[in-house]
Amino acid sequence: MFYLLLKYVLLGPLLRLMFRPRIEGLEHVPESGAAIVAGNHLSFSDHFLMPAIIKRRITFLAKAEYFTGPGLKGRLTAAFFRSAGQIPVDRSGKEAGQAAIREGLCVLRKGELLGIYPEGTRSHDGRLYKGKVGVAAMALKAEVPVIPCAMIGTFEAQPPGQKMPNIRRVTIRFGEPLDFSRYVGMDNEKAVLRAVTDEIMYAILGLSGQEYVDKYAAVVKAEEAERQGAAGRTGPWRSRTMIAKSTSSTTERKAPDGRDGRAK
Fold first, then answer.
1. How many angstroms separate the CA atoms of 203 and 132, rounded?
2. What is the pLDDT of residues 105-137, one digit of tens each?
3. Residue 140: CB atoms within 10 Å
4. How far apart are CA 233 and CA 181, in angstroms?
């Protein structure tokens, strides 16, 4: 009930007014039945913009930190995210990936829409990063289609660390559903999971036109944090040298299938 109140009365109209979203390909989202909507993740606002424009209810897997804040503010934040159709997933520890898959399958087995960001975290620089294979495992286990989605302009509307978004127009673009029925029963094969995930990421890339980086976003963030720490320890001259040397190894312009990392 509160989800509908947020979507149609409290939050949805405000988001439409602020971002004036241009919607493309919405007909690719099925009106009924289980499916996965897999998108790039550029902004905190992504969590609410996509549900605001999709006619059906969509449930997202969200990091558990949104639900575990202390005090009254933390409880209100958790209640808000649950009401907005978010499910907490603990991303720490060895079982984190399996926990996300279990939660996602529960949603799909009820015939509902599941939203997921295969990169596993927000992009800190606007580029598209290597996808994690959990989206492939869920698609194959549940035998459901995957609808690729590109959020365009949300990085500029609300960059990382910015609490209040800028008022500007964004685009939400959906692609044709991806059918992976040819791989059903092969969800335990690593090569298959990687191939399916890369196909999903390439579809997102084709919709978004982002630069692609063939590394996990979390790994790149950790590497950059390490370099920044080294800069503080070694002084400006050596830190600039280290950053210059590492730039070529950090940025890969090849798409998941080996093509150039910019969409044509």
1. 15
2. 999 999 999 999 999 888 999 999 999 999 999
3. 21
4. 53
- Write out the two tokens for 57: 């209810």
In the chain, the amino acid numbered 56 is: R
Contact status, residue 250 vs residue 215, Cβ threshold 8 Å: yes
Residue 90 burial class via C-beta count within 10 angstroms: exposed 0-12, middle 13-18, buried 19 and up: middle
240 and 186 Cβ atoms separated by less than 8 Å: no
In terms of pTM, does the model score above 0.85? no
Residue 251 has pLDDT above 60, yes or no: no
Q: Please, what's the b/e burial string for 206-216 (b: 16 or more CB within 10 A of its CB; e: otherwise)?
A: ebbebbbbbeb
Tokens 């999709």 found at: 54
Distance CA 147, CA 36 (A): 6
- The SS3 assignment for 101 reads helix
DSSP 36-100: EEEE----TTHHHHHHHH-SS-EEEEEEGGGG---HHHHHHHHHHHHHTTEEEE--SSTTHHHHH
SS3 183: helix
